[in-house]
Amino acid sequence: MSDKPVIWIPRRLSDATLARARRDYEVIVNEDDTPGSAEDIIAMSGRVDGMIPCHSEHFSAEVVAKLDPRLRIVANHSVGVDHCDLPALKSHGVVVTNTPDVLSDATAEIAMLLMLGAARHAVAGDRIVRTGAWDSWSPSFMVGKQVTGARIGIVGMGRVGRAFARKARGFDMEIHYHNRSRLSPEDEAGAIFHADVDSLLEVSDFLSLHCPATPETRKFLNAERLARLPEGAVIVNTARGALIDEAALLDALDSGHIASAGLDCFEVEPGGNPAFASHDNIFMLPHIGSATRATRDAMGFRALDNLDAFFAGKEPGDRLV
Ligand code: DGY
């Protein structure tokens, strides 16, 4: 019988992550890679000392109330933790960590892709070529919105927001942002701070969301705020689907007030919003912001670093509660 801590890994993490985890822990992996259900989480809590879940495993207050006291740490393989009821886990005595920093560039890359693709008709363009429907060219064909030199509004200037701003600077964009607090001049790097959300919206030809999903930010981008954006604005969301009122977004796209949207996350995941499928002006990806090989390894290693510190009796670097 080994004296290594036992951990549960409900999803198929990167090979390098699994190899390191198996070296240092007794590991139970959900080989079929399906999301861990509430029943799985509760049952596993009596068999393991720690878990490395993804945002697909939901630690609601009801689940947490039934956790076995054996489980001492939830070392998330994600930066977002809206799938975890942090106060409930804290009062249950479970330590929770996440994986900040390491996915900022990968997520910002996807935000750039969505912004460019939404601005330049990537969905319709690809389909027209792919289906053989491209039979003419004219100066008025597929004319889009120029990104270079345009004004970008960034909601949430945390690590991902700042990584996105760095990339947007490469396109000579004029960067505006709203954040709970103003950044230092060094981090701001010339970006224009708006303490007031409405004033940010009014100047945002492009708007990219980079804030966490919390009860306060739920449906942040609602009909009223969409109406404040300039005519023809483009929306980008790589944060969480809960930030957007999807019905209001559809109305704004249908009216033409919003030109297009690039979305990597949706109110309902997996699956997305079926009403979006008929809209060529929505460029959609299936929540793959952090899905690069290097980033998956880095996320797995960061989660393991947190577990290692915890089981060595130290403070995990990314402890949230
Ligand atoms: C995150 O880390 O929050 C990403 O959305 C993937 O889960």
List keywords for this structure.
321 residues, Rossmann fold, 7-stranded parallel beta sheet, 5-stranded parallel beta sheet, 12 helices, binds (2R)-2,3-dihydroxypropanoic acid, NAD(P)-bd_dom_sf
Q: Summarize this, please?
A:
By secondary structure, this protein is α/β, with parallel strands linked by helices.
Write up this protein.
By secondary structure, the chain is an alpha/beta fold. It has two domains: 6-98 and 293-311, NAD(P)-binding Rossmann-like Domain (Rossmann fold, 3-Layer(aba) Sandwich); 104-280, NAD(P)-binding Rossmann-like Domain (Rossmann fold), CATH 3.40.50. The chain has helices at 15-24, 38-45, 61-65, 86-91, 104-119, 122-130, 159-169, 185-188, 197-203, 223-228, 246-255, 293-311, and strands spanning 6-9, 26-29, 50-51, 73-75, 95-97, 151-155, 174-178, 192-193, 206-209, 233-237, 258-263, 282-284. The strands form two sheets. A seven-stranded parallel sheet has the order 8-7-6-9-10-11-12, sandwiched between helices. The protein has a five-stranded parallel sheet with strand order 2-1-3-4-5. Helix 1 packs parallel to helix 12 and helix 5 (104-119) crosses helix 7 (159-169). The protein is globular, with a radius of gyration of 21 Å. The two termini are 31 Å apart. The mean pLDDT is 98. The structure holds (2R)-2,3-dihydroxypropanoic acid (DGY). The site of (2R)-2,3-dihydroxypropanoic acid (DGY) has 8 residues, from loops. The site of (2R)-2,3-dihydroxypropanoic acid has 8 residues, from loops. Residues 17-318 form the D-isomer specific 2-hydroxyacid dehydrogenase catalytic domain. Keywords: NAD, Oxidoreductase. It comes from Roseovarius gaetbuli. One of its GO terms (molecular function) is hydroxypyruvate reductase (NADH) activity. Residues 113-289 form the D-isomer specific 2-hydroxyacid dehydrogenase NAD-binding domain.
